[in-house]
Specification:
By secondary structure, the protein is α/β, with parallel strands linked by helices. It has one domain: 2-Layer Sandwich (Nucleotidyltransferase, domain 5), CATH 3.30.420.130. The chain has three helices and six strands. The chain has helices at about 50-60, 75-80, 95-100; strands at about 1-5, 25-30, 35-40, 65-70, 85-90, 105-110. Strands 3-2-1-4-5-6 form a six-stranded mixed β-sheet, sandwiched between helices. A hairpin with a 4-residue loop joins β2 and β3 (about 35-40). The chain is globular.
Length: about 120
């Protein structure tokens, strides 16, 4: 299983970033190999459509799960249509967020958060 976490940096101790489309980096944790990959978020500097770009990147990475703060309407729609489960988490180290997910202690995101426009 591939778990993607919106993050502030590229170590497992980096903090989760509650912003999905504007996070600095995506950490991709592979449960089968117990390993991490890191991918710069292609939406971070977009003047618009950051959530759409970020969602496309996650879909292309063949993610099974996304852990973030919330998803805007466009990102939520794309993630949901792709069959990727999304979960909300507070700002914690990435490794702790994964641990909480594996213990079924995170809340599934069942609707979109508010839209953000531009680089806000």
């Amino acid at each position: 299983m591939k778990i993607v976490i919106s993050a502030t940096g590229n170590t497992k101790e980096s903090l989760l970033d509650k912003r999905f489309g504007r996070c600095e980096i995506f950490q991709i944790y592979d449960t089968e190999s117990d390993s991490y990959e890191f991918a710069a978020n292609s939406g971070v500097s977009a003047s618009g459509g950051a959530g759409i770009k970020a969602a496309g990147q996650i879909i292309d990475a063949n993610a099974d799960v996304v852990i973030t703060g919330n998803l805007g309407p466009n990102a939520y729609e794309l993630i949901e249509k792709a069959g990727i489960k999304a979960f909300s988490c507070d700002v914690l180290p990435v490794c702790k967020a994964i641990e909480l997910f594996q213990k079924n202690m995170l809340t599934e995101i069942s609707n979109a958060g508010s839209a953000h426009h531009g680089m806000n």
